[in-house]
Design goal:
The protein is mainly alpha-helical and about 425 residues long. It has helices at about 10-35, 50-85, 85-100, 100-135, 145-175, 180-200, 215-225, 265-270, 270-285, 290-310, 315-325, 335-375, 380-390, 400-405, 410-419, and strands spanning about 210, 230-235, 250, 255-260. It has 15 helices and 4 strands.
Length: about 425
């Protein structure tokens, strides 16, 4: 049976208060974001949005806001219940009872939590996809596609996640300066997966078809040459298989860069608009944003693993406080990994504020680059307005929501900057 945790320490109080504070902050941001929705169509969007479309966007925002509040409240409640009935200690005991060694016990523990979370979140994913997105005309995924996506995700998690987790746990159990070696292994795998994703992983979920010869492909190739952007291919992705929403992106390293456009984006955009969008994406490359973000991610991962080392040190005072806070007696890497991730969640949110502000600045710089190389910001502005209207996005989101979550600047700010 699960043993209820009754011994509180100051670490317990800090984590509980931080989790509740984070939830309340998100709740406040949601309410203020609803309040910030404009009563009439902004002048800048008058050519792509009418009052009916604006009402649809407002309703879409309200439905998603209620759904988000419910989902976050449910997740926090489940976490607290599992925590305070001694669930982490109980699950650790079960894993050790059926596993022959520490690494295997760790994999059982982590896999059980992963699968449990996946099952609990499944009803929310189903409702979001077929309820909300379906109601507003965005969803095109069939139940078969939905199920296959989840099964493929689980298979990839097993094929990639289990060996990686086993390696990290073995390192923390057997190697000195474990955090440094674990960081090196994880970073190396991330770089390899980034290299392999376009050719091995992404095609498991979407079909990438080489763009047929024609004016659009020629213009894209000319844009790449003009910008010094080496292209290994231009592809059309079947985004319409799952959603009506549109996007574009590029992948790959070095001289093996590929541009992929959603088929929905091609269907809804003019050729100048597509060139403007791609010039923006190339702007991220030419301004060094990709390398900067990659370097920042590697440094952030190093800091996380260093702190994880403190949180799992068998004789460490910090580790003892953390494990006592969750009612777990035996300090171990696999339990410490989970407990530390819970402790880190509020900190990650605050760090995300800084990273999002940095990302928004990058978006302005990429817009400016697109304006520079095309000589006209109107097509890019038109594409951004169409996507906002088609996606029923918030035209002028609340400042707190932008501050917390937006990696891209609000549309109206981008339009004014492009002028």
């Amino acid at each position: 049976m699960m043993r209820a945790m009754t011994d509180w320490n100051f670490m317990t109080a800090i984590i509980v208060v931080a989790l509740f504070a984070l939830w309340k902050l998100e709740f406040a941001a949601t309410l203020l974001n609803l309040k910030a929705f404009p009563a009439k169509v902004p002048d800048e969007l008058a050519d792509v949005m009418d009052a009916t479309k604006l009402d649809q966007a407002r309703n879409y925002l309200r439905v998603n806001a209620r759904f988000g509040i419910l989902q976050s409240a449910f997740s926090l409640t489940v976490l607290l219940i599992f925590w305070f009935v001694g669930g982490f200690s109980w699950l650790d005991g079960c894993a050790r009872a059926i596993a022959p060694n520490e690494v295997t016990a760790g994999l059982v523990f982590l896999s059980s939590l992963f699968l449990g979370q996946a099952l609990l979140s499944l009803p929310f994913s189903i409702y979001e996809t077929f309820g909300i997105e379906g109601k507003f005309g965005f969803n095109r995924a069939t139940p078969k596609t939905f199920v296959l996506d989840r099964l493929k995700g689980l298979l990839l998690a097993a094929l990639i996640g289990l060996p990686l987790a086993a390696a990290v746990l073995w390192i923390f159990i057997n190697v000195s300066h474990a955090w440094l070696w674990a960081w090196a292994v994880v970073t190396g795998l991330q770089l390899v997966l980034t290299w392999l994703a376009p050719s091995l992983i992404m095609p498991l979920f979407n079909k990438f078809t080489p763009m047929p010869d024609g004016d659009l492909k020629h213009e894209i190739e000319e844009l790449g040459k003009r910008c010094g952007f080496p292209l290994d291919g231009v592809f059309v992705m079947d985004g319409s298989k799952r959603s009506t929403k549109a996007n574009a992106f590029f992948t790959g390293f070095g001289k093996r860069k590929k541009i992929a456009l959603f088929d929905t984006l091609i269907d809804k955009s003019t050729q100048p608009e597509l060139i403007g969008v791609l010039a923006h994406e190339i702007g991220h490359f030419r301004r060094g944003h990709i390398k900067q973000r990659l370097a920042a991610g590697i440094i952030q991962t190093a800091a996380i693993f260093f702190l994880l080392g403190l949180a799992t040190a068998p004789t460490g005072h910090f580790a003892r406080l953390l494990f006592d806070a969750f009612g777990v007696s035996k300090i171990s890497p696999h339990v410490g990994l989970v407990l530390f991730s819970i402790l880190l969640e509020p900190v990650s949110k605050l760090l995300g504020v800084v990273l999002n502000a940095w990302s928004r600045r990058h978006e302005f710089e990429a817009d400016a680059y697109a304006l520079q190389v095309t000589g006209d910001g109107t097509p890019l502005a038109s594409a951004l307005k169409k996507m906002t209207a088609d996606h029923l996005s918030h035209p002028s989101p609340g400042k707190l929501r932008v501050w917390l979550d937006y990696s891209h600047p609000p549309l109206l700010e981008r339009l004014r900057a492009l002028k």
